């Protein structure tokens, strides 16, 4: 898939933009001054596939905690700053590799200039992070769409950064509505040369966020727009990372990941497809085995519907048939189905 060509920026030892890879990121749910909890959360997410992690910097305690967190984190750290430019400067002095500034919350140009000078000194990238809840006051009163307001808010701050010869920039334009978010990022991809951070803001609890984020981000990713994503959830950061991996994989942008094909079951089903599919996918996912595996509940249609899979299994009354690339290779009992599939998976690694 051809990606939009954006300017490459460095965040610690990670490159963003100017490449095909879309980086995965999440945000810590603990207060940043709770150092041990934050470090554990960051490194757990890193093991699951996160490339970057963001922390909130609410006060001076949080900014000071960054020094220890950076030293013990497996991936680069981003500091989320609102209202107080001094906290951005303190976070950079303590080693954070990127900061996020909200165009609607830090308005004084002298403050922004001081932040830019600190970013240059410490080699830190800046994300201009506009969202629908904090649009620039001058922009918010204009009779234009929300998508245009998001882009114009970001553009105003970008021009200030560029005025002071700062170009290590990442841009985000998040709304909680799907249509507005898609429109904003499409417009931004035409206007800005900088990497784009995709996301739906305030996307809701896990089940709602999964649908809303997939609906909003997949069209952009398939158009080649976006250099990093966060699936925002009211919930666990680890779930955000998993969801991002799954979305990128299904968009053809994350190769080292399994594909599961399983039927929705119906009145013909005489075996426990859900349990078997869940166990097999967990085995594949935990080991990052990039196979396509089908788990089907009907021997009549299963092999045909799952023929695109590397390996598949279809159930009948108390037994299964196993197939490779649609060709039957053996029959097994329901009791032996899981163990036999694992042996076949291991033989194909």
Written description of the protein model:
The longest helix is centred in the middle third of the chain and has 18 residues, at 146-163. The protein has helices spanning 35-48, 60-72, 85-93, 109-122, 137-140, 146-163, 178-191, 206-222, 237-250, 273-286, 302-305, 337-348, and strands spanning 9-11, 14-16, 23-27, 52-56, 77-81, 98-101, 125-131, 169-174, 197-198, 228-229, 259-262, 292-296, 311-315, 319-324, 327-333. Helix 7 (178-191) runs parallel beside helix 8. The protein has an 8-stranded parallel beta sheet with strand order 8-7-6-5-4-3-10-9. A 5-stranded mixed beta sheet has the order 11-12-13-14-15. The protein folds into 2 domains: 9-250, TIM Barrel; 259-348, 2-Layer Sandwich (Sulfite Reductase Hemoprotein, domain 1). Helix 4 (109-122) links the parallel strand 6 and strand 7. The model has no long low-confidence stretch (mean pLDDT 92). The protein has 12 helices and 15 strands. The protein is an alpha/beta fold and 349 residues long.
Write a brief caption for the model.
The chain is α/β, with parallel strands linked by helices. The protein has helices spanning 35-48, 60-72, 85-93, 109-122, 137-140, 146-163, 178-191, 206-222, 237-250, 273-286, 302-305, 337-348; strands at residues 9-11, 14-16, 23-27, 52-56, 77-81, 98-101, 125-131, 169-174, 197-198, 228-229, 259-262, 292-296, 311-315, 319-324, 327-333. The chain has 2 domains: 9-250, Alpha-Beta Barrel (TIM Barrel); 259-348, 2-Layer Sandwich (Sulfite Reductase Hemoprotein, domain 1), CATH 3.30.413.10.
């Amino acid at each position: 898939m051809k990606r939009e060509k954006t300017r490459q920026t460095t965040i610690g030892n990670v490159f963003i933009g100017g490449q095909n890879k879309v980086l995965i990121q999440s945000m810590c749910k603990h207060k940043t001054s709770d150092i041990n909890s934050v470090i554990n959360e960051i490194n757990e997410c890193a093991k699951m596939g996160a490339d970057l992690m963001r922390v909130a910097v609410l006060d001076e305690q949080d900014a000071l905690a960054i020094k220890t967190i950076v030293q013990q984190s497996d991936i680069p750290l981003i500091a989320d700053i609102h209202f107080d430019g001094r906290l951005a400067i303190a976070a950079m002095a303590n080693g954070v590799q990127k900061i996020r500034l909200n165009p609607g919350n830090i308005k004084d140009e002298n403050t922004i200039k001081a932040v830019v000078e600190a970013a240059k000194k410490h080699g830190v990238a800046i994300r201009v992070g506009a969202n629908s809840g904090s649009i620039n006051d001058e922009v918010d009163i204009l009779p234009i769409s929300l998508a245009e307001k998001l882009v114009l808010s970001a553009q105003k701050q970008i021009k200030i950064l560029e005025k002071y010869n700062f170009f290590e920039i990442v841009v985000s334009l998040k709304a909680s509505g799907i249509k507005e978010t898609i429109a904003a990022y499409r417009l931004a991809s035409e206007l800005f040369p900088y990497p784009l951070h995709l996301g739906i803001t305030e996307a809701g609890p896990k089940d709602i966020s999964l649908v809303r984020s997939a609906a909003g981000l997949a069209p952009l990713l398939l158009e080649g727009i976006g250099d990093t994503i966060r699936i925002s959830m009211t919930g666990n950061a680890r779930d955000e990372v998993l969801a991002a991996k799954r979305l990128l994989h299904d968009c053809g942008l994350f190769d080292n990941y399994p594909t599961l094909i399983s039927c929705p079951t119906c009145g013909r089903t005489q075996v426990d497809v859900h349990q078997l599919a869940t166990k097999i996918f967990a085995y594949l996912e935990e080991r990052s085995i990039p196979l396509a595996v089908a788990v089907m509940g009907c021997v009549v249609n299963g092999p045909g519907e799952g023929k695109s899979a590397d390996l598949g299994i279809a159930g009948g009354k108390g037994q299964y048939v196993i197939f490779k690339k649609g060709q039957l290779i053996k029959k097994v009992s329901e009791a032996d189905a899981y163990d036999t599939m694992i042996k076949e998976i291991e033989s194909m690694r």
